[in-house]
């Protein structure tokens, strides 16, 4: 199981898509933490996200596990 010790919103994108459309946004991630097995999560919402976005409130989510040794 995974325990979240700290969380931070790094950026937000606001695309509008029609059915079966795809969207790509190249971007650079600048972590503010160092460590092993840091989870970078992307949340997808239908409409506007809530004030406190979370995996539980998202329509879909995906994530990457990162090891950050230097900033």
Topology:
Layout (H helix, E strand, L loop, with lengths): L34 E10 L15 E9 L3
Antiparallel strand pairs: 1-2
Structure description:
With 71 residues, the chain is an all-beta fold. The chain has a domain at 35-68. It is built from no helices and two strands. The chain has strands at 35-44, 60-68. The chain has a two-stranded antiparallel ribbon with strand order 1-2. 0% of the residues are buried. The mean pLDDT is 91.
Q: Give the SSE string.
A: EE
Shape by Cα distribution = globular
Largest sheet: 2 strands, antiparallel
Helix content percent band: under 10%
- Low-pLDDT parts are none
Over the alpha carbons, how many angstroms does the gyration radius reach?
A: 14 Å
Strand order of the largest sheet: 1-2
Number of helices: 0
Strand content: 25-35%
């Amino acid at each position: 199981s995974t325990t979240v010790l700290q969380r931070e919103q790094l950026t937000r994108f606001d695309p509008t898509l029609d059915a079966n459309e795809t969207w790509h946004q190249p971007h650079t991630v600048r972590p503010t933490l160092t460590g092993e097995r840091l989870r970078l999560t992307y949340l997808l919402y239908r409409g506007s996200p809530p004030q406190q976005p979370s995996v539980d409130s998202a329509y879909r989510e995906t994530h990457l596990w990162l090891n950050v040794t230097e900033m």
